[in-house]
Design a protein that fits this description.
heterodimer, A: mainly beta, 2 domains, 3 helices, 19 strands, globular, B: 246 residues, alpha/beta, 9 helices
């Protein structure tokens, strides 16, 4: 087995995914470790170009008009060493009427001092759809700094759905910065679930601008902070077109000396638009806690069960 | 002495006497009912026995298998074998029903899917659903009963088990009560419903924070129907000398 294949297998096994899924010729994939491309496979209609730069990797993805990629595309971004900087520049275009779903795994299993920088630009064309699930697996040491940044254009009638999950290992530091602009009849759904411990720091800043008629947007954040972890969530939804609809939802569970801040901003520029928001921050619900304790769970186990539920993929 | 006993239990909340010298002995392996009008103190009695927060400042004692449990936390009481089914069960966002049932088994291997069937929920439809707001009140009630069946407690306090349940489902709830009894659980039904009262073998009538009568279900039902539906004495039994009839 080549060294690269060994690394790929190692990275995938840590995510709970069977690396043999990549053997399927219908499954497109891209595997990057540090700033090196270890594996890449495309399917008809999907063009992927990955170039190694001096300080990172530039990935250009283009899904041609009308192409429907049947099986989810696998992306794996890993750092097998305990130190280093991984920088990925993504430029993604989903042409009109095309549909794609991606599963991204970001794996930093032994990180002591690792930075993962993602700088993405995404364009989802008219009536196209883009579904992206990103799962992070971090080391227990907390030595990871993650900086995901994305600028998104969601075309007329298009769908853009993302889900970000970081519940295994320590967060370290994460600073999410997404901004999206949504045209008429489009749908945007951004969801983040993150669990912080020790001195982890979580910052989420998501902005969606609903500029087209009947555009819909939902920004959801579910966070747990324990020990001395800190979370700040700044989600902003702006509606400037008739009949635009949106909702900002933030739930944060605070335990021990954790600190959580939520600043939902709703901004409406048309009387026919409607945006709502909801933020709930606090300890676990007492009735939930007492219900589980009345079944014999210790308080700590009950809290863990409640948080795992909140942060689970629904 | 029964498996669970409360002795001279008194509790005041917000300056109001909610439990006023309550003494009850629950016999092992039976289905008991604690019946009474709204505000009689029935749910408070259940909350006090399991030890919910806000119900700890009591006078008197709670004995389980002859030992005082008044200083124990909820989970310690539960690990001894006492549990509570809430009148309105909690919602758990994102927590799968199957996980909730398995967690209630405390490490014992249980067939969560079979238990769901026992309470009338299709395991294929419900096993992976969350115990959240997408469930109706009746469905949550059944899920809670499933979790209690998985726990196999020695004593199960069920607060208004028919609350929010449709007529078709109520028989399933009663079946679950029978299952609990069959598996050796002493069941205490907290209720103001005659249908629920009829499931019991022995009953206690509470009014205004006191136990005013106890005995066979037939006798208590007769009194309850006659004097308590509707309650015409505003929960002040002294005015009607109810204690004298106990």
């Amino acid at each position: 087995m080549s060294q690269e294949l060994t690394v790929i297998n190692d990275l995938y096994s840590r995510t709970g995914t069977d690396p043999h899924e990549l053997d399927d010729p219908d499954v497109a994939h891209l595997v990057i470790n540090e700033n090196h491309v270890l594996g890449m496979h495309a399917v008809p209609g999907l063009d992927v170009d990955a170039k190694e730069l001096d300080d990172g990797v530039k990935v250009v993805v283009n899904l041609r008009s009308g192409t429907i990629v049947k099986k989810p595309v696998h992306l794996c971004f890993g750092m097998t060493p305990d130190r280093g900087v991984q920088r990925i520049i993504m430029d993604v275009t989903i042409e009109s009427g095309a549909h794609i779903s991606l599963l991204a795994h970001c794996v930093f299993p032994v990180a002591v001092d690792v930075q993962h920088i993602m700088d993405a630009r995404l364009r989802v064309g008219e009536n196209a759809s883009y579904k992206y699930f990103e799962k992070h697996v971090h080391s227990p040491a907390g030595g990871v700094k993650v900086y995901p940044k994305a600028l998104v254009e969601v075309g007329p009638g298009a769908r853009f759905e993302t889900e970000f999950e970081l519940i295994e290992g320590r967060v370290g530091l994460i600073d999410i910065d997404y901004e999206a602009t949504c045209q008429a009849n489009s749908l945007l759904d951004m969801n983040a679930r993150i669990s912080g411990r020790a001195d982890d720091y979580i910052k989420i800043s998501e902005t969606a601008n609903l500029v087209g008629e009947y555009a819909k947007g939902v920004l959801t954040s579910k966070i747990a902070v324990r020990d001395n972890a800190k979370a700040e969530v700044y989600n902003k939804l702006t509606a400037s077109a008739p009949f635009a609809r949106g909702h900002v939802d933030c739930k944060e569970i605070v335990q021990d000396n954790g600190v959580a801040t939520a600043v939902p901003v709703v901004d409406v520029h048309d009387p026919r638009a409607h945006i709502t928001h909801e933020a709930a921050i606090g300890s676990v619900d007492n009735k939930q806690l007492e219900t589980l304790m009345a079944r014999g769970l210790s308080e700590d186990d009950a809290v863990e069960t409640i948080i795992n539920g909140l942060l689970s993929r629904s | 002495m029964g498996i669970l006993a409360v002795e001279n239990l008194k509790l005041s909340l917000g300056g109001r006497q909610i439990l006023n010298d309550v003494s009850i002995d629950f016999w092992d392996g039976h289905v008991h009912a604690v019946v009474g009008p709204n505000g009689a103190g029935k749910s408070t009695l259940a909350a006090t026995i399991i030890g919910l927060s806000g119900y700890a400042d009591i006078e008197g004692d709670i004995l389980f298998e002859g030992q005082s449990i008044r200083e124990l936390s909820i989970d310690e009481r539960a690990r001894k074998g006492i549990t509570l089914g809430w009148q309105e069960p909690a919602r758990f966002e994102g927590l799968p029903i199957r996980t909730f049932i398995n967690a209630s088994a405390n490490g014992d291997k249980v067939d969560a899917m079979a238990i769901l069937e026992q309470v009338g929920l299709d395991p294929d439809d419900y096993g992976n659903r969350a115990v959240d707001k997408t469930l109706s009140g009746g469905e949550r009630k059944k899920v809670e009963l499933a979790s209690i069946l998985a726990m196999k407690p020695k004593v199960a306090l069920l607060d208004e088990p028919d609350s929010g349940i449709d007529i078709e489902s109520i028989e399933r709830i009663f079946d679950a009560v029978k299952l609990l009894k069959e598996q050796g659980t002493t069941v205490i039904l907290i209720t103001h419903s005659l249908a629920v009262l009829n499931q019991a073998e022995h009953a206690f009538l509470m009014c205004h924070g006191k136990v005013v009568d106890k005995g066979s279900v037939a006798r208590i039902r007769h009194y309850f129907e006659d004097k308590c539906i509707p309650c015409d004495h505003k929960n002040v039994p002294e005015l009607y000398n109810i204690e004298g009839q106990a």
